[in-house]
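Example record

One chain of 324 residues, shown exactly as stored in the release files.
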Amino acid sequence: VVDLWRARSRAGIEGLARVARQPRWGGADAACLALTQGWGHNAISILDRGRHDVHSSTMTQPAPSNDDALLSTRDEAGIATLTLNRPGQYNALSEELLGELAHALDDIAHDRAIRVVVLAGSGKAFCAGHDLKQMRARPTREYYEKLFSDCSRVMLAIQRLPQPVIARVHGIAAAAGCQLVATCDLAVASTEARFAVSGINVGLFCSTPSVALSRNIPRKSAFEMLFTGEFIDAPTALAKGLVNRVSTPDSLDAAVLELSRAIIAKSPVAVETGKRMFYQQLERGIESAYDYASGIMACNMMAEDAAEGIDAFMHKRAPQWRGR
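Predicted structure tokens for this chain:
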């Protein structure tokens, strides 16, 4: 059984290369498709060749949820909920769970019916980080490099996913679990949630979690969390910008649903284009960012949804999005 899980995990990680693909909307020329994909300088050579690849597939139906599944999935009204399901281990990210998460993200990336992804945890915790017991069982540098590389690919897949990803945090989010929260595009936390990058407490600096954390909250706040390993509560996480909203435990699902529906109400073209553009421009200098954003905005204007949205606004009616 373990061998089967590992094989599936490996396939899932390798499948993440397919997450970054062409935008799923039409009505624009090849240059616009390249820009919205975020190819950067590679777009020039691709366009010079006069061709571009389009990847398409349908999402495989998730297996029925059961108590033994490492990751349970539920799709409802345009929202895909992925629930880390190792409650006895506080949803620690074992290599098998990372593989399952990789598979799920790869499938979701190709499903136009899914508009928002919610990442949740079962049991008392959101995610306690990596599975330390599993890590100590294979004390080789090669294994550790592969494990952290695979985990990083999952984090990148979340960022590159066309759909916005919302972390639903009800309990502790520690180390790589806090990294997950910081990696998600948005986060809604319960008042009972707590956050830490606590690897330093066991002699292991949270290097990979620091990448996401330092891009979410002010530098000195990130440094303090990383070098003390201390937990912060949900209101503090909100003040620092690690989460977007805080609600009582009883209203957590309602808060997540409210945020999800606010996104679903918007044009699929604008949401997908916007997410790609947002992360691409962050990695550029300001002049380059403006150049890139100008091109993206011009291409976005060529989409049918942009014309429909502007016409609807001017005629004081609700827009009818076509997703192209």
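Notes: Strands lie at 71-76, 79-84, 116-121, 165-169, 172-174, 186-190, 194-196, 232-233, 245-247.
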